[in-house]
# Entry
Amino acid sequence: MIYTPAQVAAQLSISPQTLRRWSALWASALSASAAPGPGQRRAYTDGDLAILRHAQRMIAGGQSVADIAAALPALELDEDTPPASAVATIPDNTQERFVSALTIIADQKADIARLQSDLAALTDRLQSLEQAAQRPQPPTGILARIFRRR
# Structure
């Protein structure tokens, strides 16, 4: 399958700018269509998507850009091979661990989405509180009694 940059960025939950940067950094591990010459449109294969997902996991694991660049070409994913088919060739124990890791990642992705939603709600609440704090407040306590006498 062929993916547009917008589709890949959405699937990886990254910005298009990050995708462009990753495509340039790891062009040697990606298909020619993922890092085309000037004036040509980018397109990504299933293999490209699998490589970028792997790079994303390595980033999350604290790997350096240089380590990732060294590791990606060794993946040897056929660009027409969907990630699910690539997983089927892995020994059983590794495959179970991989599927387990993918499940954990999916759960963490859902948690991140919930946290982003909570953060947006809290940001809105903070803005409304800041606006309320900027409005003049009527005097209270002893100041209220003094101003009432006048």
Observations:
- The beta strands are 2-3, 44-45.
